[in-house]
UniProtKB/TrEMBL annotation:
Residues 3-76 form the Lysozyme inhibitor LprI-like N-terminal domain. Transmembrane segments: none annotated. It comes from the Bacteria. This is Lysozyme inhibitor LprI family protein. Gene3D superfamilies: 1.20.1270.180. It comes from Pseudomonas nunensis. InterPro entries: Integrin_alpha_N, LprI-like_N, Lysozyme_Inhibitor_LprI.
Length: 436
């Protein structure tokens, strides 16, 4: 809006408010981008915008009313723009899916525990990349780390000039950010991947991408006006609870950020085009079945000591696992019958149907009854979203308590060795989406 020409009450109110003027500027930018992106629908867009302007003008000098109208319209236009320009898979993406499926099935013949990892490793980008991080000043350790002041090893002079000209420094918690140069679009110029640690409850890291365009790096944005890492990120990684990771792979000459989001019994792999707004994405799903076991020797992490379970308790815990799914997490679910008999008096009925509330940092595989020496206990098998290692296999925990919410609980380590049961491919929505 040209405030030198403001004439109506609404226009003067907008020009008198920095917040409203900023919203007007943002909306104008998104609207123009949408018009350019949809030439066939320009007449329809202009009509809709004129109708909205009439609705806006009804607010007159009411700042709160104008703020609400602008935010509603801006959100609507941003959604339309994202849907319009979002990447949709093409034939080569489907061929890549089939390549991955076959590679996973081949790897399964020799390594049924880690077929996905083996297949991804065969496509991983292992050359042509340079990574560096923010640095802290030696003379002031209390200051946050910042973008390097001298050219890092492995960065070409023209890349350094483009980096400094683009002001790509990311402000992670305590300055924790890293930068990777790699060619993401096959044009011979290395693009930029920025990993920013933001901390917070989930210990999140946000990964953004920038395309090398001439003498600058241009940020890929999740929405038309994204200006922060959380809004413009290609994806995020949750460092507490969730089991997520990324592999940068090259298949058939195309680079993907292969984002893995895992749960008990399944690895979901999303193939993200690193420089485009995310629409529908190619997905690979790898399913597993576990053979669960309870180690006879249990370690107490808090005290560092170990105890050996007696035969009766060990057998009871093993028997309890028979009632737990070995292929998928059931969560608490709809318990139609109590896990233990409900006495005529005592705790409310609810205490007998499930173990109780869970927590976001672990995954509830299922609740079960545990019968020890003729007494019925409530048990819950939980894991850390399919977290798995070659040494220990699945790391899970069986919590056991009496049917009394106030009673003390006992925890026992449960391990599981997995085997792949199948791999499927599809096109669908990206679960880890952050606005793109």
């Amino acid at each position: 809006m040209d405030c030198t020409k403001a004439a109506s009450t609404v226009e003067k109110t907008i020009c008198a408010s920095a917040a409203l003027y900023e919203l007007d500027s943002q909306m104008g930018g998104v609207y123009r981008s949408l018009v350019r992106a949809t030439p066939q629908a320009q007449a329809e867009l202009k009509t809709a915008q004129r109708i909205w302007l009439k609705t806006r003008d009804q607010c007159a000098a009411d700042v709160d009313c104008l703020d609400q109208r602008y935010r509603e319209r801006l959100q609507s236009l941003q959604k339309q723009l994202s849907e319009t320009v979002a990447y949709q898979p093409v034939e080569i993406d489907r061929l890549v899916l089939e390549d991955l499926r076959q590679a996973i099935q081949t790897a399964n013949k020799t390594d049924p525990e880690f077929p996905l990892e083996r297949a991804l490793d065969s496509f991983a980008i292992k050359t042509g990349t340079t990574t560096f991080s923010n640095v802290a000043d030696d003379d002031n350790a209390f200051e946050e780390a910042h973008f390097p002041k001298i050219i890092p090893v492995g960065v070409a002079q023209d890349e350094w000039q483009a980096l400094t000209a683009s002001k790509v420094e990311s402000a992670g918690e305590n300055g924790n950010s890293s930068y990777t140069l790699m060619d993401l679009d096959g044009d011979g110029l290395r693009d930029l991947v920025v990993d920013t640690y933001s901390g917070g409850t989930g210990l999140f890291s946000y990964i953004e991408t920038f395309r090398r365009t001439g003498d600058v790096f241009v940020r890929r944005t999740g929405t038309a006006d994204s200006d922060s890492s959380s809004e413009s990120s290609l994806f995020s990684l949750n460092g507490r609870g969730a089991n997520q990771s990324v592999y940068w792979i090259n298949v058939r000459g195309r680079v993907y950020a292969a984002y893995r989001n895992s749960y008990y019994g399944v690895d979901q792999l999303y193939l993200l085009d690193p420089l485009k707004i995310t629409g529908a994405v190619p997905i690979v799903s790898v399913n597993y079945r576990y053979q669960l076991s309870v180690p006879k020797t249990q370690k107490d992490d808090a005290s560092g000591t170990s105890i050996k379970l007696d035969a009766v308790l060990h057998k009871a815990l093993i028997q309890a696992l028979v009632n737990v799914s070995t292929t998928e997490a059931k969560d608490v679910g709809d318990q139609r019958t109590p896990l233990c008999p409900i006495p005529p008096a005592g705790e409310g009925d609810g205490a007998y149907y499930s173990y109780g509330p869970g927590h976001y940092s672990f995954e509830i595989v299922g609740d079960t009854s545990v019968v020890i020496a003729g007494q019925c206990y409530i048990g819950r098998l939980m894991d850390w979203f399919g977290g798995y290692s070659a040494k220990d296999g699945l790391y899970a925990q069986l919590d056991v308590r009496k049917p009394d919410l106030e009673s003390a609980e006992h925890s026992y380590t449960v391990n599981g060795r997995r085997r792949m049961t199948g791999v499927t491919t599809s096109i669908g929505k990206f679960e880890g989406d952050n606005g793109g």
